[in-house]
Design brief:
Chorismate lyase; two-stranded antiparallel sheet; 9 helices
């Protein structure tokens, strides 16, 4: 029986992909073929394919076709942040699972990475960020470096997995985070993190480095998060300044 709605087509194709009738790497029928076989308009077929692509099941390329990428939907995460307060709300939705913590002294290589003086002392905390959805895959791996002046923050971090470390520093020590410098770059997933993040070695990944400064401009914390590329989208909106519009 022919399907009559885009939702029906999405359901049918998703089930066929999950059942292996369209294996990963194979091509789905063309838009024209789907229109003919299901009695749908080209607009309706494209709408259904858009939804499948949003789910991470397929990809579409001009002159190539619609390729099956996964047998089950990919859990994704879209982050849209404009203020320090909005960043703090992130922790309430995604909990931290600590993998290790250690004290270290920044050698020259680490000092360059953190943009801090060599020989300074830091608490290094490694953790996974997890969605609260049952059986969801990890969102990212995060390495956080905290100034040694906040030495007893380690226990608080373990007791409050839903609160960002920067927020814990503010609450305990009264050191307000006034500015965050963020850098985003592309990389390949390292072998040592691929298993933790349940993804492939050398698959595309995004690395986000944030440096947290207080009102005096002193560096209090550095975090470096590594996200599998297909599970993270950073959304940012920009507006033309009023001065330029005049």
């Amino acid at each position: 029986m022919n399907k009559t709605t885009p939702a029906d087509l999405v359901s049918e194709l998703a089930e066929a992909i999950a059942a292996g009738r369209y294996p990963v790497g194979s091509l789905l029928p063309t838009e024209f073929e789907l229109c003919e076989s299901h009695g749908l308009s080209r607009y309706a077929v494209r709408k259904a394919l858009d939804e499948l692509q949003e789910l991470g099941l397929i990809s579409r390329r001009k002159n190539v076709g619609t390729r099956v990428e996964s047998t089950k939907p990919v859990t994704g995460f879209t982050q849209s942040i404009a203020t320090v307060d909005e960043l703090a709300q992130f922790g309430a939705r995604h909990v931290r699972v600590i993998r290790s913590s250690e004290w270290l002294v920044a050698d020259l290589a680490l000092a360059r990475e953190l943009d801090c003086p060599g020989g300074t002392h830091w608490l290094h905390i490694s953790s996974l960020r997890m969605d609260d959805t049952p059986s969801a895959r990890p969102i990212c791996w995060t390495d956080v470096y905290v100034d040694a002046a906040f030495g007893d923050i380690d226990e608080l971090v373990r007791q409050s997995p839903e609160i960002l470390i920067s927020s814990l520093i503010e609450a305990r020590y009264g050191r307000a985070i006034a500015r965050i410098r963020q850098e985003v770059d592309a990389m390949l997933m390292p072998a040592q993190l691929a298993r933790e993040l349940q993804t492939d070695v050398d698959s595309p990944a995004l690395r986000i480095t944030r440096r947290y400064y207080d009102t005096a401009g002193e560096l209090l914390e550095v975090s470096r998060s590594i996200h599998p590329a297909n599970r993270f989208t950073f959304s940012m909106e920009m507006s033309r300044s009023r001065e330029q519009d005049r």
